[in-house]
Amino acid sequence: MNRRIAILGAGNGGCAAAVDLTLNGFDVSLFTRSEATMRPLQERGGLEYTGRLGDGFVPIPILTTDIDEALAGADLIVISTPTNAHQWYAELLAPRLRPEHVVMLNPGHTGGGLHFVHSLRQAGYSGEVRTCETITLAHGSRKPTPTKVNILAVMTNLRLSAFPGKYIDELAPLIRQAFPNVVPAANVLETGLTNLNAMEHPPGMLLNTGWIEFTKGDFRFYYEGITPSVARVIQALDDERVALVRALNRQANLAMKEMSFIEYFHLAGFTSARAVEANDMYQALQDSEPNKPIKAPETLAHRYVDEDVGYGLVPIYELGRLAGVDMPATKLVIDLASLVRGVDYWKEGLTLDKMGLEGLPVSELAGFLYEGRREASWA
Amino acid sequence: MGLTVAALGAGNGGLAAAADLTLRGHRVRLYSRSAATLQPVIDRGGIELSGAAGEGFARPERITQELDQAVAGADVVMLAVPVTAHPYYARALAPVLADGQPIFLNPGHTCGGLRVATGLRRAGYQGKLAICEASTLTYGCRIQEPGRVLVQTVVPELPFAAYPGKHLAALEELVSVLYPAIRPADNVLVTAFLNINAVEHPPMTLLNAGWIEYTGGDFYIYFEGTSPAVGRVIDAVDRERVRLAEALGIPTKSFLEMFHEAGYTTRNALEAGTAYRALQESAPNRWIKSPSSLDHRYVHEDVGYGLVPWSNLARAAGVETPTIDYLIQLASTMNGRDYAREGLTLENLGLEAVPVEALQDALYEGVH
Lengths: 379, 368
Known about the structure:
The structure holds two protein chains of two kinds. Chain A is α/β, with parallel strands linked by helices. Chain A has helices at 12-23, 35-44, 67-71, 86-93, 112-122, 168-178, 188-192, 196-206, 209-215, 228-252, 261-267, 273-278, 281-286, 303-323, 328-341, 345-348, 365-371, and strands at 4-8, 27-31, 46-51, 56-59, 62-64, 76-79, 102-105, 131-134, 139-145, 148-154, 158-163, 182-184. In chain A, helix 4 crosses helix 5 and helix 8 crosses helix 14 (303-323). Chain B is of the alpha/beta class. Chain B is globular.
């Protein structure tokens, strides 16, 4: 792989990746559409960092708001933006993308790659496309200042899926050069349907609406805010998600893992074995040491709602529609979020249409995920 | 001339009513199904009343755990119990209630009278129905210690309805002897749509579930808990309630209008038009603490006996009430219950076979 990697997005995730890749000997170009975000970086000439990768400064050779400058010489394009910006980036890249490019969505959340590719096609790109994605960011990080990133965690066992899925064997080794911790998954639903944030964040936010707004989030979100009745709603969402995974496995022959939130949570080192044994959602969140100190957001206008409903629960519900799975709890949380935030997530969120799946017979889903095109257009 | 009143229920409302009516010269038989509740009153030989309804020691004519002892020969049987207890009382009353003996629900909340009528019929009561109800309790009151009750307010005006509606005049004449503050409404649906508790309590408890459960309700639920976004949910519930009432041809008012008229908020808040402002500027509610858990009438009663009947009527009328519907579902998930089934359904109201356009006539003539 070419040593030049283009990172699009200079928020927490993009800056953390820029530092990590530079330290690994890659030659990074960092792009953001925001002049205000870029200017201090250009003045500093790079990024200061602290945390898990040590303390120091890395110069970044290309710091730009010019997309062509950012893409020049790069084969790998890493998009590290909120998911609601994916369409904008697809439109920006459509006239510039070449078949040798690989696009990595860091992260893709639920259906990010499907949405990105569909948006590329809508914007007129007709060439071959290779995307891959993770369910969550490769780094846990925060930017304390505009030119400094605090890298709190480097994710391990981060599952990577490709769209079209047929490229995973090719892409996984390639991406591993840059992100050594990724492990391959069969397709984008196998990663996308393990969206734990979409299970825990919206109920945690909505059922603490008054507390968040009155105290500006002055409580511990997971440890104090997720009480037994809130956990019951999380459990209801997760039961529906698992039912969807089962239905898709059966109907589309997908062989995805049918694991619960609590099991994934434990596997990721976020909760205790006794919570798994008890299969108790409340216990699982009480016993989450890494999450225990985390404060609630100051307002409901936050990605815990906007992203985890619009790009988490909505595509999950929509996939349920495709598979004919009844998801009343998921629907109710989307409805409530829409009312509380004054945003119509049914429209703003990731629908089957935006994922390019509207009208696809579920029997053709596996083929679509693998080939990246509907059967009728297979060569 | 005093009436003979069977006062069923010895909670806040029941004790206040038994004491107040006794002191005003009526012959009261106080009944409770709970020996533990009744014993302190028996030990004292009566009830000590203080506050806005007057002061004194009231000695009811009878204090009993035998329902027939309380009911036999009473001019009116008054139920001052949580609405969730109405099905129980209907079953218990069926064998002891005389033909056409008047029942007064204090309060009836949303369609309590229809629920009691259904319960009586299901339990085999074949007599004439003469049921009436006040929309809320006639007193704001609290038991301070066993056998001692403080009345903070006597409600000045109280919507009052009868079922079947054709008995309204006779029942109003009877009950106004006890409570001159009652104001007759056409039928029990009119009062049912005045239930502002069901508009405000479910959103403010469900959307503060974490705060309530983590702190045991240690915050002011109106002033602190009802934030702008919680207020938006209350506004949405109220819009659906008003739209439904209009579709059913039932006169009603907005939550804000009722809240303002009852003296609970400012004119500025009324004009601002949001529940958030109305509750921010509600002096009487300012210092009301949150319930300590979701196992509380703000959910059980206001969802099961408030939102559920509205949702059922909406479905019958072909009106959409999405917010009301998902709050019912949310409450059910959070409390591990099925309010849509255990609450006041059309079946429990006895209205499942009545076409919407025939509803008003049915409520006048009676269908039970």
